[in-house]
């Protein structure tokens, strides 16, 4: 379903990105509308797949996940069987917060959140026992400077 997004939709989406737990009344007031039209637009945006889900953002460090690694993977394998095994290995591991297939010298980059370096090593050993990779480079994030899931509407 393709829909046209107008300025009011963008305002609603921006408000939801800031804090989706707010009431419809609060969002409607913020964007200068009333509750029912805002609800109808949100429903339309959900049905169209523009709004994929609602969730909460947790403080990783407060929950003991103090280490964030960016893992660069090169592989000499590119066939469908290997890709399926790799995808299955990644989706089975909750430590992998993001995974991207890249253009260029590196084939994949993963964002992996774990408690510490030992936990990363356990993740790494499990991954390489399931799928063949050519090289793996792990980069430890020393400081998170900016992190957002919000799109620039």
UniProtKB/TrEMBL annotation:
Domain (HTH asnC-type) spans 5-66
CDD domains per record: HTH_ARSR
Q: Which InterPro entries match?
A: ArsR-like_HTH, AsnC-type_HTH_dom, Dimeric_a/b-barrel, Tscrpt_reg_AsnC-like, Tscrpt_reg_AsnC/Lrp_C, Tscrpt_reg_HTH_AsnC-type_CS, WH-like_DNA-bd_sf, WH_DNA-bd_sf
Pfam families according to UniProt:
AsnC_trans_reg (PF01037), HTH_24 (PF13412)
The protein's name is: Lrp/AsnC family transcriptional regulator
- List UniProt keywords, sorted A-Z: DNA-binding, Transcription, Transcription regulation
Output the superkingdom of the source species: Bacteria
Q: Which SUPFAM superfamilies match?
A: Dimeric alpha+beta barrel, Winged helix' DNA-binding domain
Organism expressing this protein natively: Loktanella gaetbuli
Record's PANTHER family? DNA-BINDING TRANSCRIPTIONAL ACTIVATOR DECR, LEUCINE-RESPONSIVE REGULATORY PROTEIN
